[in-house]
Amino acid sequence: MDKMPKWADVILIPLISVALALIVSGFVVLFIGENPLEAMAIMVRGAFGSAYGWGYTLYYATNFIFTGLAVAVAFHARLFNIGGEGQAALGGLGVAIVLLNFGWPHWSVALVAAIVGSAIFGAAWAAVPAYLQAKRGSHIVITTIMFNYIAAALLVYLLVNVFRVEGSMTPETARFAESMHLPNAADFAGFLGFRPSTPLNFSFFIAILCCVGVWLLIWRTRLGYEIRAFGHSESAAVYAGINPTKIIMITMLISGGLAGMMAINVVMGEAERLVLDFTEGAGFVGIAVALMGRSHPVGVVLAALLFGALYQGGAELQFEMPAVSREMIVVIQALVILFTGALDNMVRMPMESLFLSLKRRSDAAGQSTPAE
Amino acid sequence: MTTPPPAIELKGISKAFGPVQANQDISMSVAKGAIHGIVGENGAGKSTLMSILYGFYKADKGEIFINGQATPIPDSQAAIRAGIGMVHQHFKLVENFSVVENVILGAEDGAMLQPSVSKARKVLTDLATEYGLEVNPDAIIEDLSVGHQQRVEILKQLYRHADILILDEPTGVLTPAEADQLFRILERLKAEGKTIILITHKLREIMEITDTVSVMRRGKMTNTVKTEDTSPQQLAEMMVGRKVLLEVDKTPANPGEVVLNVQDLRVVDGAGVERLKGVSFNIRKGEILGIAGVAGNGQTELLEVLGGMIAAQGGTVTLKNQEIDLTGKHSNGQTRRARGIAHVPEDRQTEGLIMPFEAWENAAFGYHQDDKYQANRLLMSNAAIKADCAEKMERYDVRPPNPRLPARNFSGGNQQKIVVAREMDRTPDLLLVGQPTRGVDIGAIEFIHKQILALRDQGKAILLISVELDEILGLSDRIAVMFDGQLMGERLPEETNENELGLLMAGITETKGAA
User: Fold this and answer.
1) How far is B53 from chain A (nearest CA, A)?
2) What is the ipTM of this complex?
3) Considering only alpha carbons, which residue of chain A is nearest residue B303?
4) What counts of helices (H) and strands (E) characterise chain A?
5) Which end of chain B is more exposed for a tag (fewer CB within 10 A), N or C?
6) Are the CB atoms for B156 and B84 separated by under 8 Å?
7) List of chain A residues whose C-beta atoms are within 8 Å of the C-beta of residue B380
8) Do the Cβ atoms of B333 and A236 come within 8 Å?
9) Which whole number is the average pLDDT over B148-152?
């Protein structure tokens, strides 16, 4: 009865969307006088051609998995959390506070503390918009995006006035103690060729663990069932005795917590100190990742990998093709977001009618042989 | 002498939505100046056929002839030009516009409004005298009764020179008296040479007013007969394709002690409007209390407050002599269910079911915290829910019996059976039922009515709310009528009739003060 087989919905349509985005990007590259095929090859090689490339691709992907999951969880309750950027920034603050103020004996203990710290700070930052939505009906899109700016300003203030090291001119905290540094890919997967300089670190596994956790939460627990029910129909949820306020609050706390945990990867795993603007737009990319990944953890991982590759491949392209500026890379990334997120229906509708007509034809063929 | 060509003639109309053949090779002709009824179960293809005639859908195959001329109708503009007007089941009026503004909407003569308004005012006066369609042209739509709003819809079509009027379930929202008035208007229109197509599922109306009637079943037009040559029983059989019980086979009630006692229940909605103005009643074991009334008189709020969906602003409710918390934090659907109250809501699509959820997920809806559905403290047992659902689908004859099918892919009747199975299977002390058979096919109506009676005979209390008087009269052991948030007194089904209930539904008590 469904319009399309599931595989077409989950795999085929995103692939077509990405292909379209790349074709249009190709024209853009052509327009500035470079060879698009060569550019493509550089990007792919840059992202996947070496352990070095993989290190960065997976490092970025780790960020996007966290922020993508954050948006995906909220989507299931039909809440559009676009405050991942601010929640991640606050998560960074949480990581810095727990790691700077306590002497954790081992990185594993420090990691648990950082997870708790980042999740609580991220969740707290999401709690205010969630409360305003649940109790006052203030639209969560507006409030979360505003909270991004507040978070950015707050971090500037704290890094300049509170956390800056005495005598330093840079707005950043002191480095975390050596014992708290997370193992990076060179430590646990050096045999694959990762160098100590790779940014890929242990947080990647935390991200994957979160995917499993989110999958269990959404499709195997009562809470997830209630979140999905609420997301599809608030009136039905009320009929079933599900409290909308509770669902909005809990969902946003989980969402904010996941976004905050992104800081583990960047702040604890890579920079090893809290720096300004460490989120680098990952909160927003998370929206595209969740959209493209159909709010399913597996889809989120795949989409995060794609965007990680775009980030890393883009950086390489900029390096090897000087004509392609930093802004060009942003254009290409934006095209992918445009085609996979915003223009989803442009691909979806023709594909649905295609599958329908295919199905009708096969049904008709089936009926032409005498049935009854 | 040559007979004039039929007003409408359809030849071989077919329309498919994906794999579903909604209309298959339908041919039909309606004589000029006739009232033609179309009956059929939900999903039989009536609405699709009329949408094709009105230009909402394009037929895959087939031709439309208007007054003997082949007339393609690619859009509703073309339908209007061909003189076809449609009165939808849900009115398409701008609520805060006046009557005359609604009538000219989309048919303005120029950029300035005033000439059209004055012209429309004159035309409305003429139409009012010609057809008995009196409406104050300056009244605001939201201040009008439903019956008058419907007149505006008809006037809108006549203003656009419609000669062929299609009415889709026109009496669904009317009191019996308003329905009678509508029929009188239709007869006047017919006398003036207008052709009318009436889509309805109420066989009584077909018998009362139509000249000819077509029966649709599963996308095909199975019969077209003269109304005088048929009977409701025969029409029902043609619709369903087998013999059906139109009358409910009911044994006398055997009421026991009071299960539900409601005293002075009051509900004020978010806009400050008092929806329930002190309602009191009780229901005994083994008894069905039916509440009749035109939709929107507080029945919905009564169900919602008893079902825990909204809070009450006053009054007490006791279930088996224990008071129910009506306002607190713990007043919700789940605590009500725990107390033994089950609830078949009025609207299965927005309340009773989550349409994108698969049947098995819906089978646990509202009861998803139950122990039997849990695998351990953390996770639900999907396997247990699926098994439970498959078993219920079997017992309640849900078709197709596939727990993996999303709820939206079931027909209305089967969706309702999923809800009914879920709510009744726990043999609750009190069952709240709202519009149990709205949009449900005849076969399923029969089944659901039997289930409700069976639950009563097990000694359970049932509160039945329905806008279908037949249903109320057929099932209830006692009948109360609700008007403007109040109960207009109680009647016994054997001592009352549609006329009396109809008056009560309009708020008219013959002897003032009598309970």
Assistant:
1) 24
2) 0.85
3) A239
4) 16, 0
5) N
6) no
7) 220-222, 225
8) no
9) 90
